[in-house]
Structure formats: C-alpha cells, structure tokens
Amino acid sequence: MLVKPDFARYKTAAEAIQKRVSIQPEVAIILGSSLGGIADLMEHRTEIDYSDVPGFLLSTNPSHAGNFVFGHLGRRPAVIMSGRFHFYEGYSYTELAVPVRVLSLLGVKTLIVTNAAGGVNLNYRVGDIMVISDHIKLEGASPMTGPNLEEFGSRFFDVSTLYTPRLRQLAFEVASTLAPPLKLHEGVYYYCPGPQFETPAEIRAIRVLGGDAVGMSTVTETLTAGHAGMEVLGFSLITNMAAGVFDQPLSDEEVGVVARASADKLGALIEGVLLRM
Length: 277
Ligand code: HPA
Hints:
Layout: H1 7-20, E1 27-31, E2 43-49, E3 67-73, E4 76-82, H2 98-105, E5 110-119, E6 129-136, H3 165-177, E7 184-191, H4 200-209, E8 213-215, H5 219-227, E9 231-241, H6 252-276
Parallel strand pairs: 1-4, 1-5, 5-9, 6-7, 7-8
Antiparallel strand pairs: 2-3, 3-4, 5-8, 6-9
Helix pairs in contact: 1-2, 2-5, 3-6
C-alpha cells in the first residue's frame, strides 16, 4: 500500500505534544540502539510515550525505548527521541519521514543523530566513535517519495552538505577538551536496510565504494532533516567490526554490550557540543 505524506498527520502529532510540554526544543537528539542511557543527562525532564502521540510511529525494537524526553541538555531546550524507526520494522520510506517532520513542526532547527554501526574501515576499533561526514544510500527509496510538501522544502533538494561542517568541526574541538580527550574518526556511513547483518562479500564491496561504517538507520532521518532545512550532526558508535573482518559471527548482544559501555562518552560529547553550539 502506498502511504502518502500527510501534513495533517504531522500537525496532529506536533499539537498533541505541545499540549503536554512547555519546552520548545531547538535541538533534537535521536538515540541509536542501546544508547538510551544518554537520556539520563537531560534536566527538567518531561517524558511522552510515542504511543500517546496520535499519528506518530511505534517502536517495535526491544533495544529502543519508544519515548520522547523533553528538557534541557547543555543548557539548551532539547528533545531526545529514545527509540527510532527502521525500514526493517515494516515502515515504508515515506512513513520514516514522520518523526523528523514532527520535530520540525515543534521548532527543532538542529538534529543530532546517533547510531550503533559496524566498522568497515580497518583502522577503526570496537568502541570508537565516528563523526559522519557523509552517507551512501544506494538501496531503497527516499523518505521524500510521494507528493512534495512545500511546507518543508522543495521537490529536488541539494544534499551536498547534509552533515553540517561547522558542527562536525565543533565535535572535534569538544572531544579534545574532554577528560580524557576523546579521539574521533570522521567517515562515511553506508546504509543497509537489514535486518540481517551484511555478508562478508557485501562488506568488501562497501569498503571499495567508500563506506567507513555500516548500519541500518540514520539516513532517512538525515534526509528528512536536510529537506526541512535543519542542520545535522551524526555520530556512529562502532559496536563491532563488520562481517568478515574477524572470523566470528555478529550478534545483537555484542552490539548492545558495547553500546551501553560507550554511551557515557558519547553523552559527554553531545552535552559538550550543545554547550558550545
Ligand atoms: N551492520 C549493520 N548494522 C549494524 C552493525 C553492522 O555490523 N552493527 C551495529 N549495527
């Protein structure tokens, strides 16, 4: 079934949220799997379950909580989405535009996206953080599929700097001031729709194509944000080396263990960026 983009749906969701919170968020942070602990940094919190927002989507993934946390982070009014949506859950690409369009109607101007990802670049190590410089999405449709909504942006839009250079630079500056200083990579996120992890042959192909990290999320959100004129900063936490790098199977448990262990340093980095943005 073709699900068309529906401005009234986004508006209904945004108005239902505005009835329940007084904070007007400037920044939104979307947390990747098992990174929910970062939401604990939020002050003056108000939580809203996605299931209480008419027109919103529902998380089906147990490692994603499924709620908004409104409050202040780095002294800025912000909202965290603890739990995100993926194509592999059965959503269409057009439906995957819903969350960021609702954030846009709430007044969000800057989107920070985080994810757990497999390391494709052989210089990366498990636990490293990569600032996303660009992405590759050769498979699947655009979240802007269907009639264009001029309220957000134009039909054909430029994606040459989706990941805002100024914010990437700031992330490196903040990382160097943390104690201990945090070493960051900068690289290209390669999108695969999943839910299966990639084959070793796919990972070799992705490496040749220019991917440094691989994952199943983030790009639909970034594209929707870019269409709506938001600035974007993206972080990939390398939870495992991608398929075929080591002679061992990949597992969701491994991803969860590493993500939970590294959530604190990613949280400190994000808080530092918000303080200095
Ligand atoms: N591939 C795809 N998605 C992922 C991976 C991976 O290796 N690790 C965490 N998310």
